[in-house]
Amino acid sequence: MSHPDAMIWDDRYTKDARWRNLQSPRNLLTTHQDLLPRNGLVLDAACGTAPTGLHLARQGWQVIALDVSNAALRIVQSEVQKEALPVSFALMDLENPWLPSNRFDVVLNFYFLSRPLLSTYRRSIKRGGLLFFETFVRDESYSPETDGNPHHYLEPQELKHAFADWNIIHYEETQRTSHSMHRSKSRRIVQMVARKLE
Q1: Neighbour order of strands in the sheet with 41-45
Q2: How far is residue 108's CA from residue 125's CA, in Å, rounded to a whole number?
Q3: Neighbouring C-beta atoms of residue 179, cutoff 10 Å
Q4: What pLDDT is attached to residue 181?
Q5: CA–CA separation, 45 vs 68, rounded Å?
């Protein structure tokens, strides 16, 4: 795939072991896992190495893992084959994808933002299904020079307004410090767990 984001992420997963190493599942999911039904179909959007999707697959969930990075999906494929997990995966640009209506019991969206996906998720999650969403929020400390593309940040309360007619089980906007080899950076994030009612 010649998508510019694909080239960036492929380079990271190929050259930097920190990106290649599978991580623990996201805390937002594990702390609310009691909300999930016993089985169903999970969409792990912009999954990277899919630690959260693989966590659910190990418990018997059917998982569809999507990402723009072929290098990341090769890592997922290796894990799936070793453990014979119920995971399908596809290379996909998720900026504005088509997804089937009323198809998914759970959607996972961690640290990826494409605003067209918000309405897509509203259609593609089944009645009673759950959305787990966590990403960055723009605040007064945001700077394009250090924080990157402003389109990758939600506005405060934007996610809550987009799903105001759903049962919002958990919603929090808070500061979180991330650490890299070169610096520590405090960023505002939003976490939401919401159930579709209609």
Answers
A1: 87-91, 62-67, 41-45, 104-110, 125-137, 184-195, 167-179
A2: 11
A3: 8
A4: 45
A5: 10
Which is more confident, 9 or 40? Answer: 40
Contacts of the segment 143-152: beta carbons below 8 A, 24+ positions apart: 146/185, 147/187, 151/113, 151/115, 152/113
What does DSSP say about strands 125-137 and 184-195: parallel, antiparallel, or unpaired?
Answer: antiparallel
List the one residue out of 138, 137, 99, 134 whose CA is nearest residue 116.
99
pLDDT tens per residue across span 51-71: 999 999 999 999 999 998 888
Q: What is the pLDDT of residues 142-190, one digit of tens each?
A: 555 555 555 678 999 999 999 999 999 999 999 876 544 445 567 789 9
Kindly state the tokens that stand for 27.
Answer: 């805390």
Terminal Cα distance for the chain, rounded: 37
